[in-house]
Amino acid sequence: MNGWLALTVLAMVLPGLGQDAPSPVAVGADGGLIYYADERGNTVPDFSNCGYMGGGVALPQVPVRATVAPGEGDDGARIQAAIDEVSAMPIREDGFRGAVLLRAGEYQIDGTLRIGASGVVLRGEGNSVDGTVLRATGRGQRTLIELAGEGSRQEIDGTRIAVTDDYVPIGARKITVEDASGLSVGDRVVVVRPATPEWISRIGMDRIPPRRDGGRVVQWTPDAYTIHYEREIAAIDGNEITLDAPMVMSLDSRYGGGWMYRYQWPERITNVGVEHLYGISDFDPTVTAERGGREYYADEDHAWSLIWVEKAENAWVRDVTSAYFGYSCVWTRPGSKSVTVQDCACLDPVSRITGSRRYSFAANGQQALFVRCYARGGRHDFVMHARAPGPNAFVDCRADGAYSDSGPHHRWATGTLYDNVVVNGNALNVRNRGNSGTGHGWAGAQMVFWNCEAARIICQRPPTAQNWAIGCIAESRSGDGYWASFGKHVEPRSLYFAQLRERVVVDAVEAIAGRPNAWR
Questions:
Q1: Digit-coded pLDDT (tens) for 353-371
Q2: How many domains, in total, are found in the chain?
Q3: What per-residue string of b and e applies to 208-221 under the rule 16 or more CB within 10 Å gives b?
């Protein structure tokens, strides 16, 4: 029996109005996790499906099929030719074509490198200035390395089925549908949580107040806030479907219930990665700005992100460092799923210190795992973008010199775990951002702050949803979310790794847990 099937869930009503309450997850006498439900059956979700291959799978070592050494002048065309060469090779039984190895040394690149085929890995020989250094030369905002498929997710005609449960709670894996006869174990499905005018009104997002400066404010609409969660069918019992990963947003018949359909996405790429590289963006040091009486580099006409992962599944970025890029080290963008970003660092971004800049590690996709990542001099360092469908997780991450908060940034990201995340000198927040931007509103729901540390923590609860702060330490706190053990860490130390150990073989977990966090 899979470990998650054996999890204990005890129903009890727990307070959560900004005052300390019992932890909603605890370690039982046998060492297993006990989940305490609220009056509607909602529990803290299981985040162990985040990461490459759905979590619990060590990142592979892919054989080298092409090798590139540094040359004179721009190296981008030669590297791209090697990527294209490996991309044209057949996929082997293990799901890979091969790796392109970039020997140690510096490579100048004035464009963008793109992996657009499944089974291709770009590998260097070290993420330091003495290893493989990719220097983004020239002007213009761009991404240096893209892992990107094509197309979009397509609903398979005739497979849409209504959910018949009056209420599917947060954290649930079981959903009852009107007719499961056309479904099979292993089917890839989308569970849809609609946004109705009634729900939007209930959470107050149809009446976001105007901005004092007269700037544009966009009220939320149903079409824009219908969320699609990709899942796989793990079991079928009559019309009851068991999903491989939990729901991180409730399905409520009062607000449109939900439905499910099978999907396909043949143009999405899989089994791709970037590893063991050091990326540097050139910039103009004569362009500066001032903040708090201190001058800083503020050039914005240079490379913006080191790596994008977009329309890709079962991908990874490991042992990669970025320096001086304006926006991010790694951004898991829409259409990405089951991505691991491991042992990476985003150092000293160069841009103005203002909105839409310095998002060191950013997520738009689902089931991404950021583990042991470090940021220095960023703004929103560990950040969820709008409507990102969870689960997602940031584990054992740290930010130094942050100019703004970490957390969901705007517009209803759902189901993210912040596990042992440290934000030195700034905040970790989940809150209603009101008319910030063009109407950010409720930034996130079903956010879990577990054993985190920050200068300040805000944890607010949206109507129809929940946010939790458990075992967190901060100089100050506010918000009516669910607080437990404020000022003192709880057991288990890491919720993600405890949940993973419940579900998969312990040896595999230890391979993923890897070395101690060097940033702590």
A1: 999 999 999 999 999 999 9
A2: 1
A3: beeeeeeeebeebe
